[in-house]
């Protein structure tokens, strides 16, 4: 029996006729933590904005987005508004632009409680104070009537998490929630996300560039490139034996703290323009292992014997992959 909470199937997105997502297949089970990694522009955020119907009108979305078997794509706005915040909540990487600067934070949290749980008056304020305590806002009772600019960047992110929790969602989409924060605050936010998932049982989708953060928060990882998932598997599989050359390149570009000093190995070039994708594998122009076949044939995302999925005609041999990839990710956290 399929226990998927959210299921994306063949999800495609185009802007003004230019395809930017090329058929995303992804399942998130109840209580599961899934990471999406990849360079800027690979389609991580667009995937979930499309799933929630939050893209602008010029976007063309096709495919299927199901929440416990209920189709969301093409659903009326009233149905989507019941899902957004109530069943699926999303927090963004820039909390300062997500909070209303002219409204007190207490009012913003209470508004979410009114919309999704029908709480009003003293009950709503008491629940807002409880949420502020949960996310670690000190002296919540005296600060509930402050404005967003009176909080630090890390505290604003905590406020966004409190607003997301107001609807008691089944799944939380965290879109690079630590990007603008310093290392100490990043660690605190990651610990908070792990704690909330443990206590509430909600599923988490963690979108990030930081492989170390993904290793700390997630159980399963999807590596995206140029609007496609190119490798998918458990954290242990991908961090110990990355098979796709792009995934391996992400690890090679992480500096190590111990051992001899050596030059980093960058991935040459940049994410391709969606208007100018290669005929075959999109990564082939940057791939050191690419053959002529890679430039002409596009690999399908196939399931391997070990359960992971891979879209590559010439993967990195397992014997050539050093075991310390997990250690590299651990060092990125320290």
Written account of the structure:
- With 334 residues, the protein is α/β, with parallel strands linked by helices.
- The protein has a domain of 99 residues.
- Helices cover 35% and strands 22% of the residues.
- The chain is built from 13 helices and twelve strands.
- Strands 6-7-8-3-9-10-12-11 form an eight-stranded mixed beta sheet, sandwiched between helices.
- Strand 9 and strand 10 form a beta hairpin.
- Helix 4 packs across helix 5 and helix 5 packs across helix 7.
- The longest helix is centred in the middle third of the chain and has 18 residues.
- It is globular.
- The two termini are 40 Å apart.
- 38% of the residues are buried.
- The C terminus is likely disordered.
Please report the distance between the alpha carbons of the first and last residues.
Answer: 40 Å
Helix/strand class = alpha/beta
Integer-rounded radius of gyration: 21 Å
Low-confidence stretches: 323-334
Shape: globular
Strand content is 15-25%
In which range does the helix fraction lie? 25-40%
Would you count the extended β strands for me?
Answer: 12
What is the makeup of the main sheet? Answer: 8 strands, mixed
* Count of alpha/pi helices: 13
Mean pLDDT rating: 88
* Helix-strand string: EEEHEEHEHHHHHEHEHEEHHHEEH
- Please state how the strands of the largest beta sheet are arranged side by side: 6-7-8-3-9-10-12-11
């Amino acid at each position: 029996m399929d226990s998927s909470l959210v299921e994306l199937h063949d999800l495609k997105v185009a802007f003004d006729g230019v395809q930017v997502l090329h058929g995303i297949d992804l399942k998130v089970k109840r209580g599961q933590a899934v990471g999406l990694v990849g360079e800027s522009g690979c389609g991580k955020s667009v995937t979930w904005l499309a799933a929630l119907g939050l893209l602008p009108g010029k976007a063309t979305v096709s495919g299927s987005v199901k929440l416990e078997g209920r189709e969301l794509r093409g659903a009326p706005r009233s149905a989507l508004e019941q899902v957004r915040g109530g069943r699926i909540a999303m927090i963004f990487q820039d909390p300062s632009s997500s909070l209303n600067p002219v409204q007190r934070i207490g009012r913003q949290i209470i508004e979410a409680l009114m919309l999704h749980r029908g709480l009003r008056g003293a009950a709503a304020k008491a629940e807002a104070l409880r949420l502020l305590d949960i996310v670690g806002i000190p002296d919540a009772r005296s600060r509930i009537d402050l404005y967003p600019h009176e909080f630090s960047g890390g505290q604003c992110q905590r406020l966004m998490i409190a607003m997301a929790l107001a609807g008691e969602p089944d799944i939380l989409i965290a879109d690079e929630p630590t990007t603008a924060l310093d290392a100490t605050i990043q660690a605190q936010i990651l610990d908070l996300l792990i704690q909330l998932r443990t206590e509430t049982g909600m599923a988490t989708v963690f979108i990030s560039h930081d492989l170390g953060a993904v290793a700390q928060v997630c159980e399963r990882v999807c590596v995206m490139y140029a609007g496609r998932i190119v490798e998918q598997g458990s954290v242990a599989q991908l961090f110990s034996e990355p098979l796709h050359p792009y995934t391996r390149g992400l690890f090679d570009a992480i500096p190590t703290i111990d051992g001899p000093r050596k030059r980093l190995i960058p991935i040459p070039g940049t994410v391709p323009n969606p208007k100018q994708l290669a005929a075959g594998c999109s990564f082939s122009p940057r791939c050191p292992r690419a053959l002529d076949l890679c430039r002409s044939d596009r690999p399908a995302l196939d399931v391997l014997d070990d359960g992971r999925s891979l879209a590559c005609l010439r993967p990195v041999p397992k014997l050539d992959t050093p075991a310390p990839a997990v250690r590299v990710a651990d060092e990125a956290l320290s």
